[in-house]
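Recap from last week: sequence in, structure out.
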Amino acid sequence: MVIAPEPPVELPPARTVHVPGRGEFFLRDTGGDGPVLILLHGWMVTADLNWCGAYGDLAAAGFRVLAIDHRGHGRGLRPLVPFRLTDCAADAAGVLRTLNATPAVAVGYSMGGAIAQLIARDHAEVIEGIVLSGTAQHWQESSERRYWQVMGAVGLALAVAPRKVWGAGFRRAGLAGNPAAAWVESELLRNSARDVAEAGRELGRFDSRPWLRTVNVPAAIVLTANDQVVPPSKQRQLAEALGAPILEAPIGHLDISTAWQTYNPVLLAAIESVRVRSVG
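Predicted structure tokens:
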């Protein structure tokens, strides 16, 4: 039996945006003339894997939703330079400027939250606020540093035998042959192993504590209360540094693409909180 990698929901139209001096970027764009959101996905996944459950509800709420694949991830730019989070921030800002879609609310999940923090620091003129979720100011603890140190080996394994590595992981999880898992695996295979590994090392180097309190944009935190990847305590520290309200979603880190009925109402409330304060 052939299992087609069909997405679980209908996805927004795709487009390629050329940003002069930076390259061509893949993104989803729901269109319309509503307030703009730019969705920034997490490490190792794609915009669709991260946000497929959110597109419909955000568009139905009247927003124009843009979701970019970061460089080295999915259909994102394949750079000729090492992966850097600051470049991802500049990419997203460049897309917004090119589309005349400023100011937008930047919504960042996990790695996307680090990118949103950098947009707020380096490109504040393109946004009206940030919503951060499942993310932190840093991943500098010794246990986390040891984890990032293995990223080189992970990248090598994925570069040599990506189907074998991902296939083994899906078998261990009991998902082999599952039609829904087929789409997930096909999306993961779009990634550049080198860039994903370097992105992991970049996250290990990221630390916004020296400068985050100087960021002056409205912010809100959607705290993933059952998160075992980014502890809720670190998410609360992030909120304190930004002076941002916390809205809790009772999900784990990897549940965002499956528990959207629980997550999306909280996300929409956080976005509204940011927009009200940006106008006021």
